[in-house]
Amino acid sequence: MFQLLPGHIQPPGHRTRKSRLVTKDGHCNIEFGNIEYSNHFAFVVDFWTTFVEIRWRFVLVLFVAAFTGSWFMFSLLWYWIAKSNGDLTAQNQTEEHVRCIDNVNGLTTAFLYSLETQTTIGYGGRALTGHCAGTVALIIIQSLVGVFINCFMCGIILAKISLPKKRAKTVTFSNTAVICLKKGSLCLLIRVANLRKTLLIGSQIYGKLLRTTTTPDGETIILDQVDVDFMVDAGKDNLFFVCPLTLYHVINRSSPFYELSADTLPLQDFELVVFLDGTAESTSSSCQVRTSYVPQEIQWGYSFLPIISRTKTGKYRVDFSNFSKSVRVTTPHCVHCFETDVDQRTPNKENHINQLKLGIDNLGFQVIDIPEPVDVTKM
């Protein structure tokens, strides 16, 4: 039987406090424990990925520590050279004394000289005299180290800024999913929108249903994954993602939602994770957008409000104020009810088709005798 539900607008659903594996903004709620010490060493070996994935606060600390530490380390070497050569103020110097570095008289001036050398400032007050071979070798080493640190830190900052997950922030899903009739089938619908005008090329949408199951052998499987196929009217691969799309999953006998009904849905314990993969048109980098829905965020008997309209100037306008809003519609109470109602209507439809094939008596039709024609052919 169908539910006749009053038509009123339903505001977007609130986030539930139920623990989930994937949050609404796509972060995975999982932690690893009891990791062996040898496995921690793998993060050091893969240092580039480790530095790119750490938080910005640690990147800034690393940035300051790398430059300040290198300046101070080389300042100690410059101070040692100046002290070994007797260039410091406290040391007794003769008139014939030849300095290795001009105007380096202590640790402070040695630090300033190290900073000026590595950053290529060169104020002119402190400089090498060229009389000591060790100073020439040290200035070459410090210049090379400074270039390496500059390249490494610029690469990390550029990589973090251009991470594909930043592009995923401009792709949003509806706060709730709905279940209603679509094209003669009971479907689960969600909405997804690209907030940028640049497209996501080769976009693909798919879902995973996470739930706890028990095998016939009595084994309990936590986070058992079941594939959930989503599609749009034009298919499910290579989506033309220029405007918000309404994705739907047909609830049939092969669907994991086949046994659900309007009454049992809120009592279920599962999590529907939806993925959208694509390539950013402007940067050619692959990105993935994720979100999840728990049973309390799936509305049975609702349909999304339309959000696309056409202006007087001929442009298409998207009203994001109705992006996650839905309205009650007439919907079967369960999939079995819908299939039973369809089966009951099918024989009546077949009889009607057979009647059309056999014809219907016309009460105004009259039967008249037609005389046989006379053969006037002569041999």
Automatic annotation (TrEMBL):
One of its GO terms (biological process) is regulation of monoatomic ion transmembrane transport. GO terms for molecular function: ATP-activated inward rectifier potassium channel activity. It catalyses: K(+)(in) = K(+)(out). It comes from Xiphophorus maculatus. Keywords: Cell membrane, Ion channel, Ion transport, Membrane, Potassium, Potassium transport, Transmembrane, Transmembrane helix, Transport, Voltage-gated channel. This is Potassium inwardly rectifying channel subfamily J member 1b. PANTHER family: ATP-SENSITIVE INWARD RECTIFIER POTASSIUM CHANNEL 1 (PTHR11767:SF6), INWARD RECTIFIER POTASSIUM CHANNEL (PTHR11767). Residues 171-340 form the Inward rectifier potassium channel C-terminal domain. It is found in: Cell membrane; Membrane. The record marks 150 as: Role in the control of polyamine-mediated channel gating and in the blocking by intracellular magnesium. It is a multi-pass membrane protein. The lineage of its organism: Eukaryota, Metazoa, Chordata, Craniata, Vertebrata.
